[in-house]
Amino acid sequence: MDHQRAQELLSDYLDGELSDECVADLEQHLESCDECQVELESLRKTLLVLGGLQPAEPPPDFLQQVNQKLRRRTKSAFDFSFGLDRKIPFEAVSMVLLGILLALYLILVVLPKEQVDPDPPTPNRPDAGAPMRPGPPGAGSQTMKP
Amino acid sequence: MPSAKDPPNVSAKQDADPPPGEALTEAERAAVQERRLVRRLRRGDQRAFETIVRTYQQRVFNMVFRFLGNREEAEDVAQDVFVTVHQNAANFRGDSKFSTWLYRVTVNHCKNRLKYLKRRGRHMGRPLDEIAEHQMVQGSGDAQPAYHAAIPRPDDLAQGRQLEALIQGEMAKMDEDHRLLLVLRDIQGLSYQEMAEVTGLNVGTIKSRLHRARLALKEVLTRHMQ
Lengths: 146, 226
Prior knowledge:
CATH class of the domain at 1-125 in chain B: Mainly Alpha
Number of helices of chain B: 10
Largest interface: A-B, 32 and 49 residues
Strand content of chain A: under 5%
Oligomer: heterodimer
Largest sheet of chain A: none
CATH architecture of the domain at 1-125 in chain B: Orthogonal Bundle
Order of helices and strands of chain B: HHHHHHHHHH
């Protein structure tokens, strides 16, 4: 086994990931290569140090914190249970809300415009329903003669 | 990378209990208990959820902490991981180990938080070794200091802590994929197969990246030891 290849395999060797044949080749190289021996030892120490790091501990009230967060998320805007046993899907709720908004728009904005006509046509007047036309010039200032 | 929100597809093999009366090894018994627990979790059993939190909180927290290097962020992210587990338990396919799925959820949360912190310019601006030193000095007000190693250091506690801060600082400088592999393999002790399932990388890629990450760390430690 050449030196370069041996260097590449040191990590796998320490992990026990090499085949028996490969292990034998590598160990044969290690016997004759001081540099690889030093490298292997340094790598072994590195892994020992890493593996020896004491696990960081979560706070003692970690479970309570998780439960609190869970409750906050469950009671967020997307909780549409309305006190029922099961949740109502968000899509259904949004469709109903859209329908309500549309109905409100029709009732409050569109319908009042149609009903409020300042000069509604009356069936008794002869020009009822006819469009208003401007009279001849000065017609508005003429006085009726007896 | 596979999402935590996979469609429900519980494999019968994973979900089935062994025939009664059959002798089980310790590992098999633990696996059966875990499957039962996960079944209860998927049915919305709150006690099962709490048992799962208690069982895995230390592993999840340690992993997040080593990856992010900040205790406050680690607490928040670790909580988010379990909230996701609770909300997506029904989506757990059951064709991998529960712990593998949990690690996958954890990795996704860690990466998302890292992206968020980078966008906000709040990460990497302050090297983790500084944080470590700060926490060592301040004690963080916790019963347990954030950094302390179990490595043999009977004669010099301070040196051990310095070494630990050095490691954490060096890991912070690494590419996040390399750091993740170091955490999964050399700190959490996952097998290469589990790492492949968690990260979505193939084993060959994992091995070569991990080797590079170890070499980088080895250089720093060797300089430090000299």
